[in-house]
């Protein structure tokens, strides 16, 4: 079974070809092309939706062609098409969805619409077999920060989510404020390397009702205040310490909720996924915490954490394995949230 997936929910144009021997079990990634739009959005310090969708239109054709070529798969051999349906930027989603519909219609093959969060979670299963259930999953990206309890793959229960900014969004905004460019997460990680993570006095934010929800807007405001009070600048000597401290507090705040989640439910394993899961400090703290609890922990490799079509293909294979009757539905629509 060969699947071609397209992902255009935000600012990466991505296409992937995966092969699965039987159903959804251990598919092989034949290609996973990700074309970033970072350079286009960097001057604005964040994604400009209109520019994103226009760029997807320009790139999609070449990215899909490249995924077929690198995967050494002619279009006629594809058995199944998959596409991110939402949530995401509506204009961006529609580019991928329309393109995928066109391919499926032309080939007379089924098309599966995939939820973006389901795809991020599926990234963990793509590389790891036999994850014990229930699994407590922390999904951290630029648009989402959520804690899910998974009873099985594709079966998630929301335990908590951010009430304001996503963790990645907070990193992006602080980087923007300091004039460090976009996306903020990787820049903060790079420039904060070697800095003292205890140098700046951040306090871990807590929601008043002790729920499993997250909140990052207070942390972002505290960061902006510290930047002003301590005269932190892009070229100043305090930058590495400040960035390391901010990264550390974001990671600690994420892990605090995870810890509370573990206390409240009987999870048998832990998953970390989403773009921010690329972060080395967060990965390390997550692994240390899991070891402390004696729980097996699963994190996708970095390239499968940020938006990519391989995770969409993997989720589609799993959906298709459970519902092989799914056909192309030309009325399939994108959803922004
Ligand atoms: O999952 P993703 O690619 O897109 C969304 O679904 O939002 O995540 C993008 C987010 C951005 O906020 C970016 O700053 C963050 O992931 N990110 C990182 C790193 N790489 C990407 N954050 C921290 N450290 C990184 N190395
Ligand atoms: Zn994403």
Number of separate helices: 11
Task: Quote the beta fraction.
Answer: 15-25%
Total number of domains: 2
What ligand molecules are bound, each kind once? 5'-O-[(R)-(carboxyoxy)(hydroxy)phosphoryl]adenosine, zinc ion
Computed over alpha carbons, the radius of gyration is 20 Å
Mean pLDDT: 96
Q: By CATH's scheme, which homologous superfamily of the largest domain applies? A: ATPase, nucleotide binding domain
The top level CATH class name of the largest domain:
Alpha Beta
**Low-confidence stretches at least 5 residues in length (pLDDT < 50)?**
none
Q: What is the topology, as strand order, of the major beta sheet?
A: 3-2-1-4-5
**How would you name the oligomeric state of the polypeptide chains in this document?**
single chain
Biggest sheet overview: 5 strands, mixed
What this model shows, in words?
With 337 residues, the protein is α/β, with parallel strands linked by helices. The protein folds into 2 domains: 2-121 and 305-322, ATPase, nucleotide binding domain (Nucleotidyltransferase, domain 5), CATH 3.30.420.40; 132-295, 2-Layer Sandwich (Nucleotidyltransferase, domain 5), CATH 3.30.420.40. The protein is built from 11 helices and 10 strands. A 5-stranded mixed beta sheet has the order 3-2-1-4-5, with helices on both faces. A 5-stranded mixed beta sheet has the order 8-7-6-9-10, with helices on both faces. A hairpin with an 8-residue loop joins strand 2 (12-19) and strand 3 (28-36). The protein is globular, with a radius of gyration of 20 Å. The two termini are 31 Å apart. 5'-O-[(R)-(carboxyoxy)(hydroxy)phosphoryl]adenosine (KG4) binds at residues 10, 141-143, 168, 171-172, 183-186, 189, 274-276, 278-279, 306-307. Residues 10, 141-143, 168, 171-172, 183-186, 189, 274-276, 278-279, 306-307 line the site of 5'-O-[(R)-(carboxyoxy)(hydroxy)phosphoryl]adenosine (KG4).
């Amino acid at each position: 079974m060969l699947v071609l997936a397209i992902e255009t929910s935000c600012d990466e144009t991505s296409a992937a070809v995966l092969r699965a021997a039987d159903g959804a079990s251990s598919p092989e990634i034949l290609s996973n092309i990700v074309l970033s739009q970072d350079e286009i959005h960097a001057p604005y310090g964040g994604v400009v939706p209109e520019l994103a969708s226009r760029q997807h239109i320009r790139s999609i054709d070449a990215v899909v062609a490249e995924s077929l070529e690198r995967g050494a798969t002619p279009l006629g051999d594809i058995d199944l098409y998959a596409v991110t349906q939402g949530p995401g930027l509506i204009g961006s989603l529609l580019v991928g969805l329309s393109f995928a519909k066109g391919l499926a219609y032309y080939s007379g093959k089924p098309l599966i619409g995939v939820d973006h969060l389901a795809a991020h979670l599926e990234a963990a299963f793509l590389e790891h077999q036999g994850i014990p259930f229930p699994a407590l999953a922390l999904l951290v990206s630029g648009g989402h920060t959520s804690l899910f309890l998974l009873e099985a793959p594709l079966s998630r229960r929301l335990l908590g989510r951010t009430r304001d900014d996503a963790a990645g969004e907070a990193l992006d905004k602080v980087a923007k404020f300091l004039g460090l460019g976009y996306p903020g997460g990787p820049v903060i990680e790079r420039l904060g390397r070697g800095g003292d993570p205890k140098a700046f006095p951040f306090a871990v934010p807590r929601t008043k009702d002790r729920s499993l929800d997250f909140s990052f807007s207070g942390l972002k405001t505290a960061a902006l205040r510290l930047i002003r009070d301590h005269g932190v600048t892009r070229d100043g000597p305090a930058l590495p310490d400040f960035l390391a401290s901010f990264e550390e507090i974001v990671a600690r705040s994420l892990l605090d909720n995870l810890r509370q989640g573990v206390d409240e439910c009987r999870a048998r394993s832990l998953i970390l996924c989403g773009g921010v899961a690329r972060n080395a400090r967060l990965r390390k703290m997550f692994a240390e915490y899991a070891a402390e609890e004696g729980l097996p922990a699963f994190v996708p490799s970095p390239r499968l954490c940020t938006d990519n079509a391989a995770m969409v293909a993997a989720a589609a294979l799993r959906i298709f394995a459970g519902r092989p009757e799914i056909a192309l539905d030309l009325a399939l629509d994108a959803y922004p949230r």
